Amino acid sequence: MPSWPADVDAIARRFHETYEQLAPSLGYATRFDSAVPWDDVPERNRLLMAQTVTVLLVEGVIRRPEDPEADDQSMGTEGRRFG
Question: How far is it, in rounded angstroms, from Cα 22 to Cα 19?
Fold first, then answer.
C-alpha cells in the first residue's frame, strides 16, 4: 500500500469515520465495500481519500491539526449537527 504522511492519514480516517457515522441519519446508505473501519477500506478508496486530503491541504481549504493558526473548527464534528 502506498504511504502518505501520518497527518494526511489521520484526517482521511476522521473524514471517513464521520461520513459513515452521519450517512444513516441523513437516509444515505454507503457502499458495502467502504462502510467498514478505516483499516479495512479498500486500498484504492484510501488512496483517493488521502490524495483528496492532500489537495485540500495544499489549497488551504483545510489545515493540519498541529497548525498554531488552526482553531477547533478545523477538525472534528463533536457537538455539531448538520441538516
Answer: 5
